[in-house]
Design a protein that fits this description.
binds zinc ion; alpha+beta; 404 residues; elongated; 5-stranded mixed β-sheet; two-stranded antiparallel ribbon; 4 domains; 11 strands
């Protein structure tokens, strides 16, 4: 059998040379071929596991033999051994797998759920395992792995109502934030169904709370913005637990030259966030514009010059006054509510602009970004008290259509 497998040498082939049509035919064929090989691997592991052959190599379990001799990840070895054992009880699924009619993902979803305890419960309730095998195999052949997983959960709920809860309750909630060198921070993790419902409900509320006209963001982008907004509102509300005796606050370290430089000036540094890392000068200026952010200014000698504390009482009074005057984001066409807004310094404080109602403008986070990083500008006409918004080229953005 080893010779037969060795005769197949895909490394010799180069699919990049194929024409479009041939390439589209080849991809599903390789997928099926790969599945058949994984099914064969699963049967080989099952046979070895049954005969406990790993003991000859001094390994106590087949899983440890696979991780040690095949450099498999622990989770991968566990699901392979488990699939091998349980497929022996599910001949219809095993046959479909051997023929490449269902994928490895389908098999993992089903074999993870069809535990010996559930099989015993099902037998006690008069449900024949052969029928289960038939129904779940039919689902796997017709549906993708995600929808097969739903069918599997219905089967579990039918024979073992507590089992659905047990599965969920046993899941730890995991969430990771991983900054990368490219300035992006990657989020990953998983939660149980109840946790997911809470996250989803809170995000939906934020997403639907403010949807400006002509919003072209994708669902995923709006969800990403909503997550950040949820955290921003929690920080602003001041209800989060204190950390080492201090209210949790964003701290930004900025180079004095970058802070005072004109927009786009070359050769000036930028800012730095303690967790997420380096920022452009424009973004650092925007963050430092908000009085709720602690700014640490580094002088030309590389030493901190001024650690500006957020003056909570003074800025809270100014914020209230600015909210009373502006009521919503003042950027042309935006009506984002005050709770979503920063108080922008029309003349940046680094250029002598005071933290005052007169110098303040209520802008939502997106438009605060547009003003600092996007070179848009806003100005209030002192005569009419009307706000005007200007594009980077200096032309004014006028509201099209009837005003609200
Ligand atoms: Zn600002
Ligand atoms: Zn806005």
């Amino acid at each position: 059998m080893l010779e037969q497998l060795a005769a197949l040498d895909p490394a010799e082939l180069d699919p990049a040379d194929l024409a479009d049509e041939a390439l589209l035919d080849l991809i599903p064929a390789i997928h099926v071929g790969g599945t058949k090989l994984t099914a064969l691997l699963t049967r080989a592991v099952a046979a070895a596991d049954r005969r406990q052959v790993h003991r000859a190599d001094g390994m106590v379990t087949m899983k440890s033999w696979l991780t040690g001799h095949c450099r498999m990840a622990g989770g991968e070895a566990t699901s392979l051994v488990r699939a091998g054992r349980r497929l022996q009880e599910l001949p219809e699924l095993a046959a479909a797998y051997a023929d490449g009619l269902v994928s490895t993902a389908h098999v993992q979803v089903i074999t993870a759920a069809v535990t010996p305890a559930r099989v015993a419960t099902a037998a006690g309730a008069g449900i024949d395992l052969a029928v289960t095998d038939q129904v779940l195999t039919a689902a796997a052949r017709a549906l993708g792995p995600e929808d097969t997983s739903k069918a599997v959960r219905r089967w579990v709920a039918g024979i073992d109502p507590d089992g659905v809860l047990d599965d969920a309750a046993g899941l730890p909630r995991v969430f990771r934030l991983a900054p990368s060198s490219g300035g992006r921070v990657y989020l990953s993790g998983h939660v149980d169904p109840v946790g997911a419902e809470m996250v989803h409900t809170a995000l939906e509320a934020v997403m639907n709370g403010h949807r400006p006209a002509g919003d072209r963001r994708s669902h995923a982008e709006r969800q990403g913005d909503a997550l950040v907004e949820l955290c921003r509102q929690a920080l602003v509300a001041g209800t989060l637990p204190e950390v080492r005796g201090e209210r949790p606050q964003i701290r930004v370290t900025i180079d004095l030259l970058a802070l005072c430089a004109e927009r786009g000036a070359a050769g000036v540094g930028g800012g730095e966030l303690p967790f997420a890392g380096a920022l452009s000068a424009e973004t650092a200026r925007r963050l430092a514009c908000d009085a709720g952010v602690v700014r640490i200014i580094i002088g030309p000698d590389g030493l901190p010059q001024d650690v500006g504390r957020a003056r909570r009482t003074a800025t809270a009074a100014i914020r209230r006054a600015v909210i009373a005057r502006d009521t919503h984001c003042v950027f042309a066409g935006c009506r984002a509510p005050a709770a979503w807004c920063d108080v922008h310094h029309v003349v940046h404080w680094a250029h002598g602009g005071p933290t005052s109602c007169e110098n303040g403008a209520l802008v939502c986070e997106r438009h605060h970004t547009a003003v600092h990083e996007g070179c848009f500008s806003i100005a209030r006409d002192p005569g009419t008290a009307v706000w005007h918004t200007y594009r980077p080229d200096g032309s004014e953005i006028l509201i099209r259509g009837p005003s609200p």
